[in-house]
Write a structure and sequence with these properties.
Elements: H1 2-11, H2 21-41, E1 46-47, E2 52-53, E3 56-62, H3 69-84, E4 90-93, H4 96-102, H5 107-118, E5 137-141, E6 144-147, E7 164-173, E8 182-190, H6 194-210, H7 212-218, E9 222-223, E10 234-235, H8 237-256, E11 260-261, E12 267-269, H9 270-276, E13 290-291, E14 301-304, H10 309-316, E15 328-337, E16 353-363, H11 368-385, E17 391-397, H12 410-426, E18 431-435, E19 444-450, E20 456-465, H13 467-471, E21 476-477, E22 483-484, E23 487-492, H14 497-507, E24 521-525, H15 531-543, E25 548-550, H16 557-566, E26 571-575, H17 577-581, E27 584-589, E28 594-599, H18 600-612
Parallel strand pairs: 11-15, 17-18, 24-25, 24-26
Antiparallel strand pairs: 1-3, 2-3, 3-8, 4-5, 5-6, 7-8, 9-10, 12-14, 13-14, 15-16, 16-23, 17-19, 19-20, 20-23, 21-22, 26-27, 27-28
Helix pairs in contact: 2-3, 7-14, 11-12
The structure holds zinc ion (2 copies).
The site of one zinc ion has 5 residues, from loops.
């Protein structure tokens, strides 16, 4: 018994940092209870792995057939019965032989057991730190035994029968590997009580309505085609207008700040990527190289660019640079390609082709701090313009106890980290330091942004790099007439345009601020008699630079308003007989607020001010 208590106490260590321990145990236990119900429903079902994740849990099964709604309802009902049985979770350590015998009919568990025996892997098949050699333990409740290290609640009654819910069924590959068997993943969620569950389900519903994949279709912003390939977004006309507006905004800001725009091709010689270190080290996340004729027996070919840095480096290296012309700031909205696993693709937040609002700043060591300050300032300006007001600034620094992980000299790192700290300090930023989060080539500043639904995203980054200038032997001529090594800063205020727009769509629920809305104004004549006047107003607004359309269909105006509302168009101008006689428009906002009739010139003034000041409306 004492051994079991020790095992249970030790299991607490497996709760991830930042995860509420009680919720972790409830969800982990709910996953086991679900697995028992699934095995009862599907004789011969083979449970594989089932961990708690953020807000939820899942379990992957090899099933004789895919479950339907009816199965899910049955499983949920059966779980309630098991919960009411208050079955204790008992743990025991088993030998390798016992473990193999217990799970002899389940090849997945047998594979996990081999991983445990050889060491280096936990029971989810994840690699373990070198010094950790786990015991083989099993947890049992009622009739269900699982290969498991815990931790669990004391008995099934700790899971509330009205505090959990099964959510969805999805496909998943064994160990995330597309060449391995496809499994059925059942997701559920579990909370301390019904109130917490209801709150979570409400958040989920809101997120579902704001899902950028759904809104992207509804607002006709972007699409995907299987004929083009997964993860390769196609921007529709409306999405393109919005995207180009964002790009223009940043281009203007960059010009003011002394950036030089450049354009580079989408591919480069394999040699280039070997020098930069992107090949073969990141080979698995890249499209394979395009092989060319192999005349001399060495590997030759081209690679779709996973990064823009080496191309910009060649522009810097194109001529002799003097200390007087630094910093050189090269900016490009550069298309890059990465080979993400199919299972990870979904909407715009994970794609295989995307555009980085990239820039590389080559500067002297004494300029690093000021360049950092300016890059941070620009990133904050971008977030502010899009009403991301809730963010944290993370200073990602080196782990001082694990210096071998990083390139560069100690003194360089200390100087760089100090420069970043001072930059954040002088800007009055409430920044926090994250040790061990630096890139291997240098420290960075990351912007962690909370959206309207309270989810945190990493958008925008400023990174210092000592590695690439070294690898490409970049130099400038100092005032001493000697060659010196420049520092290099990578920065991208949006990060990836695709991902940023995906987050932005969900943040504002598709109701973009007026300056970004693909269609800013829609004119709605009440009858055909006002059609000519409507087109005349349209021409005037269009000439003043607004994006404006007329809905002249013979539909009821109420119907046209509802449609414009669904398209989240900021301003609707309703035109009847009286408006026409007075050279006026009746203004309705998408917030359903009615501003009444006003002269066309007055509306134009109002809309233009909102757009110039980047206000919502
Ligand atoms: Zn478990
Ligand atoms: Zn870069």
């Amino acid at each position: 018994m004492e051994v079991a208590n020790e095992l249970k106490a030790g299991a607490e260590a497996y709760i991830p940092e930042g995860y509420d321990p009680q919720l972790y145990k409830i969800r982990h236990s709910a996953a086991h209870v679900m697995a028992q119900a699934v095995v009862e429903r599907f004789p011969g079902a083979k449970p594989t792995i089932g961990p708690p994740i953020e807000d939820r849990f899942y379990y992957d099964f090899d099933l004789p057939r895919s479950p339907n709604e009816e199965d899910l309802a049955w499983i949920e009902q059966r779980m309630k019965e098991i919960i009411k049985g208050r079955h204790p979770f008992e743990v025991r350590e088993v030998s390798a032989g016992e473990a193999r015998e217990l799970f002899k009919d389940n090849p997945y568990k047998l594979e996990l057991i081999e991983g445990l025996i050889q060491g280096g892997y936990d029971e989810y098949g994840n690699p373990l730190p070198d010094d950790e050699q786990p015991k083989i333990t099993v947890y049992q409740h009622d009739t269900f035994v699982d290969l498991c290290r815990g931790p669990h609640v004391p008995h099934t009654g700790y899971i509330k029968h009205n505090g959990f819910k099964l959510l969805t069924i999805a496909g998943a590959y064994w160990r995330g590997d597309a060449s391995k068997p496809q499994l059925t993943r059942i997701y559920g969620t579990a909370w301390r009580n019904r109130t917490q569950l209801d709150e979570y389900l409400e958040r989920l519903e809101l997120a579902r309505q704001r899902d950028h994949r759904k809104l992207g279709r509804q607002l006709e912003l972007f699409t995907f085609s299987n004929k083009v390939g997964p993860g390769l977004p196609l921007w529709l006309p409306k999405g393109t207008i919005m995207r180009e507006t964002l790009v223009d905004f940043l281009k203007q800001e960059q010009l003011k700040r002394g950036y030089s725009p450049v354009i580079t091709p989408h591919i480069g010689r394999l040699e280039l990527w070997k020098t930069s270190g992107h090949y073969p080290y990141y080979k698995d996340s890249q499209f394979p190289p395009m092989a060319l004729d192999d005349h001399e027996g060495h590997e030759e070919g081209y690679l779709l660019k996973p990064m823009n840095c080496p191309h910009h480096i060649q522009i810097y290296a194109d001529k002799r640079r003097s200390y007087r012309e630094l910093p050189v700031r090269l900016a490009e909205f550069g298309q890059v390609y990465r080979y993400e696993q199919t299972g990870e693709l979904g909407g715009l937040t994970r794609v295989r082709g995307f555009t980085v609002d990239d820039a590389h700043i080559f500067c002297r060591p004494d300029q690093v701090k000021d360049e950092f300050k300016d890059a941070i300032d620009l990133a904050l300006k971008v977030l502010g313009a899009l009403s991301f007001e809730d963010y944290r600034v993370q200073l990602s620094l080196r782990d001082p106890n694990d210096k071998e992980k990083y390139t560069g000299e100690d003194a360089q790192w200390e100087q760089a980290e100090q420069a970043i700290r001072e930059a954040a300090d002088e800007m009055g930023l409430d920044a926090y330091e994250a040790l061990g989060e630096a890139a291997f080539y240098g420290p960075k500043v990351d912007f962690m942004v909370r959206d309207a639904l309270g989810r945190e995203w990493q958008l925008g980054t400023v990174q210092l790099d000592y590695n690439l200038p070294e690898r490409f032997d970049l130099t400038y001529i100092g005032s001493d007439d000697k060659r010196h090594r420049p520092a290099m800063i990578h920065r991208a205020p949006f990060g990836s345009l695709e991902r940023f727009i995906g987050v932005l769509i969900e943040h504002c629920g598709g109701a973009f601020p007026a300056w970004l809305a693909p269609e800013q104004v829609r004119i709605l004549p009440i009858t055909d008699a006002q059609a000519d006047y409507a087109h005349d107003v349209r021409a005037r607004l269009f000439d003043a630079g607004l994006r404006v359309e007329v809905d002249a269909r013979s539909e009821k105006v109420g119907y046209k308003i509802r449609e414009a509302q669904l398209q989240k168009i900021p301003y609707m101008l309703i035109i009847g007989k009286r408006e026409m006689e007075n050279d006026a428009v009746a203004v309705r906002l998408r917030t359903e607020e009615d501003l009444g009739a006003m002269p066309v010139a007055e509306f134009l003034e109002m809309a233009k001010t909102a757009i110039e000041e980047k206000r919502d409306l």
